[in-house]
Design goal:
Layout (H helix, E strand, L loop, with lengths): L1 H15 L8 E13 L14 E3 L5 E5 L2 E6 L3 E4 L12 E2 L5 E14 L4 E13 L3 E6 L6 E7 L5 E6 L11 E7 L3 E5 L4 E7 L5 E6 L6 E5 L4 E3 L8 E6 L5 E10 L6 E9 L2 E5 L8 E6 L5 E8 L2 E8 L2 E4 L12 E8 L5 E7 L2 E10 L2 H27 L1
């Protein structure tokens, strides 16, 4: 008995010893095609009408050629219009299922652009969910259009509000707003043309502004401080996402030019209030962009792998991984081109290509083989040990 127990304990100790970590693997789900076909070296621009968003409970909202949808693993893909959504754009969803964007009111306003006058549709920012329907955020004072870009889990909405009283229109009449159901809309400007890109659950906001001297600059605003993110050596930085730790990601000019195209090179970056802006490694140098960061500091985005091909990537612990190499079965896909979001459960959303057509996707983590092997082995050892004890008790 003593020898058997010793051998069993020794085996368990060995199994409990550190095992080399394997890269997380993912299952891919197709969320529908775009209208536009794929052309080499291109990814659709992320606008309010091509965006995808995912929350921490795994709900995804976005657009495809069949309409605007909401998806989750349990209920699959559903048309938002059939659920009472008012139409327009969807750009974000929080963990309570509240969706934000902008919708057309059906009215127009005559806008003087200097060389011509045009009737422009009036659009309002909104909050919508299945239980409570539409909440029209409206506009500020003399403004005629607004658009929401993000909502946190407290229901605070941020976005942009535009007022064109007379030419020249820019930059003095372009405002950032914050909206809460109890206080309504409040407006602030970060100077120049400033665009708010998001808000976290601490109420911190971030975005990108065009300084008067030219170029662009990322920024972060906390409850009592304002930070300028800086650049990687060039004159422009564009911020894309913010997590609860204060980490900001995006892309920044390096000051170098691509030797083949001659265009300025951009590198993905990460920045925190405690550290300077730092470049993230790409699959090749000088051609990457970070689009999202979760609260575990996992970052996703895209990186060029050649002069005409872009792949979706994951940055973790300072290392870059090609997501195309981490999907369990990618046989139906040409490739995954860019990742636009990642939640705290590790689910990733983005755009890939199937038969030359852009498609939305969601990646869901699957159990790591090492975890499965360890679990099965431990179960077999425990069962064997119990069986041995049972047979010994019968013998006595």
């Amino acid at each position: 008995m003593g020898n058997m127990s010793s051998r069993l304990i020794a085996m368990l100790i060995v199994l409990g010893a550190p095992i080399p970590a394997l890269a997380q693997r993912y299952a891919v789900t197709d969320l529908g095609a775009f209208v536009s076909p794929h052309t080499p070296g291109s990814v659709p621009s992320r606008t309010e009408f091509t965006s995808l968003a995912i929350n921490n409970v795994g709900q995804v909202v976005g657009h495809n050629r069949d309409g605007t949808f909401i998806w989750d693993a349990e209920r699959g893909q559903r048309d938002l219009s059939s659920l009472g959504w008012p139409g327009g754009s969807v750009v974000d969803i929080n963990d309570s299922g509240q969706v934000v964007g902008a919708f057309a009111t059906g009215e127009t306003v005559s806008v003087d652009f200097g060389s011509f006058v045009s009737d422009m549709p009036i659009r309002h920012a909104y909050v919508w969910d299945e239980q409570n329907g539409l909440r029209d955020i409206g506009v500020r004072g003399e403004s005629w259009t607004s658009s929401a870009v993000d909502i946190n889990n407290s229901g605070t909405v941020v976005g942009t509000d535009i007022w064109f009283p007379a030419p020249p229109m820019w930059p003095s009449h372009y405002f950032n707003f914050r909206y809460e159901s109890t206080t309504g809309m409040t407006v602030r400007s970060a100077g120049g043309i400033s665009v708010t890109s998001g808000i976290n659950d601490r109420g911190w906001t971030f975005g990108t502004r065009l300084p008067e001297a030219g170029g662009t600059s990322g920024w972060l605003s906390t409850s009592d401080e304002y930070f300028s993110i800086g650049t990687l050596g060039g004159n422009s930085t564009a911020a894309s996402d913010l997590n609860e730790n204060g980490g900001v990601v995006g892309r920044s000019m390096t000051g170098q030019r691509d030797p083949i195209t001659g265009f300025p090179e951009w590198d993905a970056f990460v920045w925190t209030p405690e550290s300077e802006i730092a470049a993230l490694p790409g699959l090749i140098d000088g051609r990457s962009s970070a689009n999202a960061i979760n609260d575990l500091d996992q970052i996703v985005g895209r990186s060029w792998i050649s002069t005409d091909t872009i792949h979706a990537v994951l940055w973790e612990d300072g290392q870059v991984r090609d997501l195309n190499e981490l999907v369990v079965d990618l046989t139906e896909w040409d490739f995954l081109a860019t990742a636009w979001g990642i939640n705290n459960g590790g689910q990733i959303i983005g755009i890939g290509v199937i038969d030359g057509q852009f498609h939305n996707f969601v990646l869901t983590p699957v159990p790591e083989p090492s975890s499965l092997l360890l679990g099965v082995t431990a179960w077999l050892l425990i069962s064997f040990s119990r069986r041995r004890r049972y047979h010994r008790s019968e013998a006595t």
